[in-house]
Write a structure and sequence with these properties.
- The protein is mainly α.
- 62% of the residues lie in helices and 0% in strands.
- Helix 2 crosses helix 3, helix 8 runs antiparallel to helix 9 and helix 9 packs antiparallel against helix 10.
- The chain starts with a helix and ends with a helix.
Length: 269
């Protein structure tokens, strides 16, 4: 028991001495860390050279040697402020690229019926979350849903009715034929918005308008990718993103421009 108490006290003390995550980030933390490491290295160099710590003169250049060692260590370490910022920037670029590819896939095969169904599901989920948050704030307990009735059961094997199994029944529907018909109907509905509305992505209203706000969202993501790539020094990627944004907005005099891609592209040349 005595050993357990000692271990518990040691663990508690080490946990209390360990800095929080919010205290181990930022410029101030790294400056304090470098200063502390510099003082420690300077003391080690002075002790190795035989310099008195109480007030002897530093004839061997201990301070310069310690400063060079600290700078070299900071340049080679993996957690400098510059490298942390570069990692964050790289993660932002990857995130924006993924969002662009997901939205590009939807715009390339745009189906109005599926998009309306998607919007309906998203609104239903948002409303469900809002009601759950309101109930939680008001202290209302959610009732557990009971067992579903037999009308919702899906029968399998020999328990299935005849009209689901035998093709001679007048109510029988071939699932493969139905899927084929649905696929053909969808192929007639889908359209490539990137081609049909190129040069009109910023427009709203009028005859055959582009689907908004998805087209403007796509332009915004391209503009963000161009800014992030330019900040990261990836000039080629930034130029490609800005050029695609300009082409989708349109190059005519009456084109609706909603992003600063043109001005940013001109500054790069």
């Amino acid at each position: 028991p005595h050993g357990r108490e000692t271990m518990a006290k040691t663990t508690t003390a080490s946990s209390a001495a360990r800095p929080r995550r919010s205290e181990t980030t930022g410029r101030d933390y790294h400056v304090r860390r470098i200063e502390k490491k510099g003082a420690s290295l300077k003391k080690q160099v002075r002790r190795a050279q035989g310099v008195d710590e109480a007030g002897g003169e530093d004839t061997g250049g201990a301070e310069d040697h310690a400063l060079r060692k600290v700078r070299r260590s900071a340049a080679l370490s993996h957690d400098t402020e510059e490298k942390i910022d570069a990692s964050k920037l790289r993660l932002h670029i990857v995130k924006v690229r993924r969002e662009i590819e997901a939205l590009r896939k939807r715009l390339t095969a745009w189906d109005d019926v599926e998009e309306k169904e998607r919007e309906r599901r998203e609104r239903a989920e948002a409303e469900k979350k809002r009601k759950a948050m309101e109930d939680e704030a008001n202290g209302v307990k959610r009732r557990k849903r009971g067992r579903l009735g037999p009308e919702t059961w899906k029968l399998r094997g020999a328990a299935r009715p005849a009209w689901e199994v035998y093709d001679f029944d007048t109510r029988y529907v071939d699932p493969h034929l139905k899927a084929h018909e649905e696929a053909r109907e969808k192929a007639r509905r889908i359209r490539n918005v990137l081609s049909t509305h190129r040069g009109r992505f910023g427009e709203e209203g009028g005859d055959d308008p582009p689907p908004q706000p998805y087209c403007r969202r796509f332009l915004s993501l391209l503009s963000q990718l161009g800014h992030l790539s330019s900040e990261a020094g990836r000039i080629t990627s930034a130029r490609e993103a800005f050029l695609e944004c300009v082409e989708l907005e349109g190059t005519e005099a009456d084109s609706v421009v909603v992003t600063p891609a043109r001005s940013r592209l001109m500054r790069m040349y």
